[in-house]
Write a structure and sequence with these properties.
With about 210 residues, the chain is of the alpha/beta class. The chain has helices spanning about 15-20, 45-60, 70-80, 85-105, 125-130, 145-155, 160, 180-190, 195-205, and strands at about 1-5, 25-35, 60-70, 110, 135-140, 205-209. Helices cover about 45% and strands about 15% of the residues.
Length: about 210
């Protein structure tokens, strides 16, 4: 049995990515959600639970981990270059997810990244993100456009859940960097107690679904 850890949000893309990874024979999926309250809507966690219950019917999804992320995101937003907040946030989530994946004996991470849809998903920024994870980061949606992803979401029954409410991250900068340099990102991370932040996320984890 090949195990993967899928990063899930209440949006349209990541549930489809988890489905695509889990639809392969012999693959077991564990999901992880980073609860960024108060920067996201309070019902986002409920959406994620509903999405995972739906996915559990379709693929071999074993469980969902809910990790606290609001305090860590607040530290990033208040301490670091605003243009790099999304990248720093994603790298922290990949670090924590990798640590959790190793505990779960998972061999790879799965994300809902689709090339160029948002600032953190340019080729340059994806390369910077990957450097934070010791495990391979699988991106099943990388070659799909938004219409194709929406069609898949409708097909598997997660679209209605994902779009039941609208949620945007309040920590996201108005003008995020699209071509970040690894050295600049690492210089910002030097301002943060990364190990403490990863440990805080993991120690506060809850198992759902």
């Amino acid at each position: 049995m090949a195990k993967v850890l899928a990063l899930i949000s209440g949006g349209i893309d990541s549930p489809v990515a988890a489905y695509m990874a889990g639809s392969h024979k012999g693959v077991e999926v564990t999901a992880v959600f980073f609860d960024g309250t108060p920067f996201i809507e309070p019902d986002e966690g409920l959406k994620v639970k509903a999405i995972c219950r739906r996915l559990k019917i379709l693929v071999n999804l074993r469980s969902l981990y809910m990790l606290p992320h609001g305090e860590n995101l607040s530290r990033i937003a208040s301490s670091c270059n605003r243009k790099l907040v999304c990248l720093l946030c994603k790298r922290l989530m990949l670090r924590a997810s990798s640590r959790l994946a190793l505990r779960e004996e998972a061999k790879a991470l799965v994300t809902g990244d689709s090339l160029g849809q948002v600032a953190s998903q340019t080729l340059a920024n994806l390369k910077v993100e990957d450097q934070a994870s010791p495990l391979p980061v699988l991106r099943p949606l990388l070659g799909l456009n938004k219409e194709e992803i929406v069609e898949l979401a409708r097909k598997i029954g997660t679209y209605q859940i994902s779009t039941s409410t609208q949620s945007t991250c309040k920590a996201a900068p108005g003008k995020p960097s699209t071509q970040a340099r690894l050295e600049a990102v690492q210089a910002e991370e030097a301002k943060l107690p990364l190990e403490e932040m990863v440990s805080k996320a993991l120690s506060g984890r809850k198992i759902e679904v």
